[in-house]
Amino acid sequence: METEYSEKQFAEKQLQIWNRLMYVALGAAVTILFHAVNPLRDIIIMVTLLHTTLAGFSLLWGVIWGRAPLTEARSNIIFGHLFASWLVVFGIYSYSRLYGLGAVLLGYTLVLMIIYWRIRKKLSTSDEMFP
Description:
Oligomer: single chain
Number of helices: 5
Mean pLDDT: 81
Distance between the termini: 23 Å
Shape: globular
Structural class: mainly alpha
Low-confidence stretches: none
């Protein structure tokens, strides 16, 4: 019983850290979206894109987080990271004007919308079962 409580406290503290990292990622994504030409641009873009995408999917389907029940706070953090990664992809597409990247952006948008819809549906179902 106490082990479950301490695991829950640990998960809540970890979630707070992931929440802060999400805001850092969102700030970096918005900066990338509006920045001018910079010699380190490509490195910053790749690091930000990898961090935001991997963090979002890790919180969604990762080994540790996959077993934990999905809460509203965790889903907001997940979608914050995934939205930041979408902003980075959109920023890359905006200044590169590659048509192939437009298809990637469209596909990624559709994937994120489907994931968002399924998670929201799962959250609303769990709320009805446990009022």
